[in-house]
């Protein structure tokens, strides 16, 4: 997480806010550059997302064709196609699974070195994750959406506010996903092996997050409960509904505001858990 020049990651006492912003930006940039080196993985992952996009799109279009009125869950065929292809693009941006770096460093004890650095692990990992998401947005998001637009009729935005609201929603979705992943990884401070919680996260994130099917297909009461009681729908369902313009502007803005609440709550909880974990390490002599 540290840069090559340690002075870059030092927050100046003369300008703590400016120093923090500079440090955060440097860490985010290093996260972006790190993933630019994985060119073959990027190409292979994008190809896989496109293939599964075809499968998911045809399944949901078949559901729309067989549904009464042709609008399952309130989506028409174009909105469902938009939901699928934007979802395939965002899958690598929000990163539902595949991150266990913190848990591994806790297991091996390398996290002790992270705690000696001038930037907390929570800040460093968040900045790196935002850099990773920016790289994925420029590479693995664009290709599936373009392929989907060439092969299927996608829903075009009818309101100019949809594009900026979608971008804000994606940013908040990345933060919410990061908060969940960080908390799941942090269980290794107490369990020493977080493979169990990580497996539960992998199994639940796709279903409850809206990846496999829109949560609006569930009974209204159940979908509403998931939205209000868990952060899962804020990871994929909300930005995809914004892109497909499933709801009116007021409701869309409300869902994005709910995303912001979950993002702040999860970061605050992650900060609290990290502090408790550091106290635990000190008590144990770590």
UniProtKB/TrEMBL annotation:
The chain crosses the membrane at residues 47-68, 80-100, 138-156, 162-184, 196-215, 249-273. Keywords: Membrane, Transmembrane, Transmembrane helix. This is ABC transporter permease. The keyword Zinc does not apply. InterPro entries: ABC-2_transporter-like. PANTHER family: INTEGRAL MEMBRANE PROTEIN, SLR1174 PROTEIN-RELATED.
């Amino acid at each position: 997480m540290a840069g090559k020049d340690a002075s870059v990651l030092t927050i100046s006492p003369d300008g703590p806010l400016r120093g923090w912003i500079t440090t955060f930006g440097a860490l985010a940039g290093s996260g972006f550059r790190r993933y630019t080196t994985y060119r073959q993985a990027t190409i292979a992952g994008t190809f896989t997302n496109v293939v599964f996009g075809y499968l998911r799109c045809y399944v949901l279009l078949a559901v729309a064709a067989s549904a009464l009125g042709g609008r399952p869950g309130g989506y028409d065929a174009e909105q469902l196609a938009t939901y699928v292809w934007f979802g395939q693009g965002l899958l690598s941006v929000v990163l539902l699974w595949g991150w266990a770096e913190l848990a591994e460093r806790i297991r091996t004890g390398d996290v002790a070195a992270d705690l000696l650095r001038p930037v907390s692990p929570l800040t460093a990992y968040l900045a790196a994750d935002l850099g990773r998401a920016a790289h994925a947005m420029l590479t693995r998001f664009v290709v599936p959406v373009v392929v989907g637009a060439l092969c299927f009729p996608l829903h075009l935005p009818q309101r100019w506010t949809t594009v900026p609201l979608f971008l804000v929603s994606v940013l908040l979705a990345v933060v919410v996903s990061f908060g969940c992943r960080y908390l799941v990884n942090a269980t290794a401070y107490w369990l020493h092996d977080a493979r169990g919680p990580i497996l539960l996260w992998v199994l639940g994130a796709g279903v409850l997050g809206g990846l496999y099917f829109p949560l609006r297909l569930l009974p209204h009461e159940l979908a509403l409960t998931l939205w209000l009681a868990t952060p899962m729908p804020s990871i994929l369902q909300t930005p995809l509904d914004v892109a497909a313009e499933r709801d009116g502007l007021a409701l869309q803005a409300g869902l994005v505001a709910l995303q912001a609440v979950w993002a702040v709550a999860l970061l605050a909880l992650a900060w609290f858990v990290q502090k408790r974990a550091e106290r635990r390490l000190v008590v144990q002599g770590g």
